[in-house]
Amino acid sequence: MNAFDYSYPVRIHFGAGCADKALADEFANIDGKTVMIAYGGGSVKRTGLFDRIAKLLKDAGKTIVEFGGIMPNPTYAKVQEGAELARQNNVDFILAVGGGSVIDCCKIVSAQARLDKDIWDYEYKEGKHPTEFVPMGAVVTVSGTGAENNNGAVITNEELQEKAPLGGSFAQFAVLDPEITRTVPMPQVISGAFDTLSHCMETYMGAPRTVNVSDEMNEAVQRNVIRNMRALSANPDDMNARSELMWDSAMAENGILKLGKQTDFQAHMIEHQLGAYTDCNHGRGLAVIHPSLYRHLVDDATPQLARLAREVWDVKETDDRKAALAGIDALESFIKDMGLPTRFSQMGITDADEIFHKVADTCILTGGCARKLPREEIYQLLHEVA
Ligand code: NZQ
Ligand code: ZN
Questions:
Q1: How many angstroms is it from 145 CA to the middle of ligand 2?
Q2: Other CB atoms within 10 Å distance of the CB of residue 383
Q3: C-beta separation of 169 from 134 below 8 A
Q4: Going by CATH, does the domain composed of 185-384 fall within 1.20.1090.10?
């Protein structure tokens, strides 16, 4: 294990039906009167969740500012719109009600509203990180990203054609009520859960690649995700499976599985850049990339991929290289069983040679993985699963 310091700033309220009481308790403790409710394309209005939350805020004596229309793969322009709204209305608290897109957007709105400089330049050109934030909280309406647990946000800068991470605010609290996720369309539920599995795998593949407690917990979370994805796709009313997946999502991103490790988010860095050019669904893009990436890494991380195969996919093969390949095959079969794509053409991304060139030329290359793929090999990989 590498050395680490660990503390965790987010207060979690978890459980089916926990939302109303948790929010009433939290709202009573918000300093200031003006609360901005941030949400996506309108599901919160259709499901009645917005009205429920608005009533609780009014009961707590708060004034509401609405910031709606945050799109999947939130844009930098949307961040600026939110920051301007927060400034104009002297917002005291931001409540993100949504999935990764809404929560990520709010993390940066929270920082940009208190920063006089352009936050993209501040982070990428000056190499600085914001320290002043409008306080925020999160109500998770679709799980998978675990975005409520960290202060990293993934924002699409349309002008620069980059989808890249920015550092923003942590939520002071997060409400994870699996009942709220019942209305999420099943394809989104499955792609979100695959994102969780991807976060586990990307963490697992980082150094050190010797047996350690973080990786052994990681294997347990992966087994749990796989079992519950199968259960939930067979029965979308399985609230136990829904709850388990929601906590798996948090576990993958609350830092616990990353302790003592470098992480390898190489599949994510490729997928994010693909998202910048195609606006594709995050979990579905990852499903296409992962098996192919691991076939490229099989000789660089043979023991680790073999252990993953045996512990997570129950592969019995004794030869490490054959076991590693069998594990990758099992992952790919599972992806197909879940109705996720294994080729970009299944996502409507066709004739994409130019896009693949751009993605390979511009994605961030990570250093924590078994081998940093050169750009030419990323381009080749993308074509293999076109
Ligand atoms: O916009 P609305 O109308 O709300 O619809 C959303 C959206 O279309 C819908 N939805 C959400 N809750 C619902 C619901 N529909 C019905 N009932 C509900 N209760 O679901 C759709 C997808 O929402 P979105 O927030 O985009 O999905 P997700 O949570 O998968 O977030 C994806 C974003 O998170 C980033 C991704 O790159 C992507 O931009 N990520 C953030 C991470 C982080 N901060 O740690 C880690 C991830 O790796 C990821 O990169
Ligand atoms: Zn992800």
A1: 5
A2: 14
A3: yes
A4: yes
pLDDT digits (tens, 9 = 90+) for 1-14: 878 888 889 999 99
Question: Which helix (DSSP H) or strand (DSSP E) does residue 82 occupy?
Answer: helix 76-88
Residues in contact with ligand 1 by the CB-under-6-Å rule are 40-44, 47, 72-73, 98-102, 104, 141-142, 144-147, 150, 152-154, 180-181, 183-184, 188, 192, 195, 253, 268, 282
Residue-wise pLDDT tens digits, 14-39: 999 999 999 999 999 999 999 999 99
Integer Cα distance of 39 and 106 in angstroms:
9
Nearest residue (by CA) to ligand 1, atom 13, is 184
Segments making up each domain of the chain, as ranges: 11-180, 185-384
Q: What's the token pair of residue 27?
A: 């709202």
Given the CA of residue 152, which atom of ligand 1 is nearest to it? 44
Tokens found for residue 119? 């936050």
| Residues comprising the chain, all counted | 386
Name the packing angle between helices 302-313 and 213-234 (round to 10°). 50
d(CA 32, CA 29): 9
Q: Are 278 and 51 in contact (CB under 8 A)?
A: no
* Lowest-confidence segment of 162-176, 213-227, 302-316, 362-376 by average pLDDT: 362-376
Beta carbons within 10 angstroms of residue 209's beta carbon = 21
Q: pLDDT digits over 193-206, tens only? A: 999 999 999 999 99
Q: What is this structure's pTM?
A: 0.97
Residue type, 200: C
Task: Identify whether 208 is preceded by a cis peptide bond (ω within 30 of 0).
Answer: yes
Identify the pLDDT of residue 2: 79
- Looking at the CA of 279, which ligand is closest? 1
Q: Which CATH class is domain 11-180?
A: alpha beta
Confidence at residue 57, expressed as pLDDT on a 0 to 100 scale: 98
CB 186 within 8 A of CB 180: no
- 158 phi/psi in degrees, rounded to 5: -65, -35
